[in-house]
Write a structure and sequence with these properties.
By secondary structure, the protein is mainly α. The protein has one domain. Helices cover 96% and strands 0% of the residues. It is rod-shaped, with a radius of gyration of 39 Å. The two termini are 71 Å apart. The relative contact order is 0.09.
Amino acid sequence: RDGRGLATAGLVLGVLSVAVAVVGGVLVLRAVDWVRGEIDDLDAEIEKLKDEIEAEVEEKASEIEADIRAEIEAIVEEIVADVEKSIETQVGGVADDVKVEVEAQVETITDELKAEIQLRFDELRVEIDDVKRRVDALG
């Protein structure tokens, strides 16, 4: 009789162990699914933030580019006006052919200034692109 009781107790313990193992396994699988879902949500959030940052960087780059272009135009217009005023003052009664030659020189100087400004603008654009690459690398 004692042997039968021990056998029954052993069987009950074995069944309970299997039940606990099954419940534990189900809980572990649910936890794994939950973690996967959270990871997917985090990945989506990171991608969204990355897209927002890229859009903001592009917007700022466009604003900077527009500001630089406006400054370049203002500087060039100011230089041309100053040079023209200077030419008018200096040339005064000088023949038209001399004035044409001076205006050609002014145009050459203006073109050189524009080229220098454009070079600086291109360098700034490279720097902006570098910042974009860094943002992409962070994402």
